[in-house]
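Let's practice the habit of predicting before peeking. Look at the sequence and jot down your guess about where helices and strands might fall. Then scroll down.
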Amino acid sequence: MARIKNPKLIIALTGSIGSGKTLIAQVFKHLGVPVYLSDVEAKKLYENKEMISQIEDLFGSGVITNGQIDKKKLADLVFNDSFLLKKLNNCVHPLVKQDFEKWALQQSFPYVIMESAIIYETGWERLFDKIICVSTPMDLVLQRVQMRDNQTKEQIMKRIANQMSADEKIKRSGYVINNDNIQLVIPQIREIHSQLLNAAANC
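Done guessing? Here is the structure:
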């Protein structure tokens, strides 16, 4: 899959669920960087009538409540079945990619970021000039997701099992931010930000 056609640098920000990607994305936004939050934008797409119809055709009326996609029912269904998860991804991901490309072209900053937990799982890594991976110890991941989503350890581990291992993501990424409650995160972000601005200036 070829890189997105765009004169700016196209950067991905990824990591496992609970790694702290959203917080780090907010820091980049504070530095003036346009950031596309994939989950947020995908949820907006779920409100599209065409998407609702596609989801109902694929998964049945049980995931539709009051004419809208019931995201919790859909999530409970697909995260327990890798085949169904793949079907959902094949439906949603092309629309997210298309929406991101349109959004990126509207930005004027030297580089833009797509934040997504599943950059590698979707085979999208070649779309980007650089990938930033957030690395977080598993005990912190479990703690954060349990507090945020009120899920059991077993439920969280099922979700993580559907993603590439953190070690493999780190190995494949151009930059790594250690979000381990020990190393300061903001200096790491500022250093990457500076390097990306320099790279963009030399394009």
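How did you do? The longest strand covers residues 9-15.
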